[in-house]
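Question: Now follow the chain.
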Amino acid sequence: MAILQYKENSKQKAAELLISLESEFRTSILPILVKLEYNELYTNEYDCHLQDVINNPPQKNISNHLEKTTDLEKVFRFFHVCSGVRRLDVDLSTLNIMCGYWLCVLNSTEAFLLAKKRPGAQAVTQQQRTHLTEYMSIYWPSVKGWADEFCKAEAE
């Protein structure tokens, strides 16, 4: 009986956690992701800065790095937390539905997926997001690993 109660409580806590993550996603993360999705917004707001951060690590340019990467760090921190939640005993389809498309945008992989999932969205290519993908590889390998895994599975 105690095991059944524990499992039921775990499911309830997982559901509460997923609702909390979805709320944060909608209010704080989604507006940033939309900027990353569209080529013009990404190029204007992030690309040059990411190139600068990669070529001149933050130790040399810390104030500029912090100011301009706050949005990106918020997004990657969110996906890092989600990647940790995936290791818990929760229904992965919920996280994949919420995060999958955006992982492919961040990872700049499989442009056809973007067109398939969001017909009006501009397909991104690795060349257009090289600095974003490199930044993710350097500073957020857990998110990069999840993005690689998800995008590969979707492509198959």
About this structure: DSSP finds seven helices and no strands in the chain.
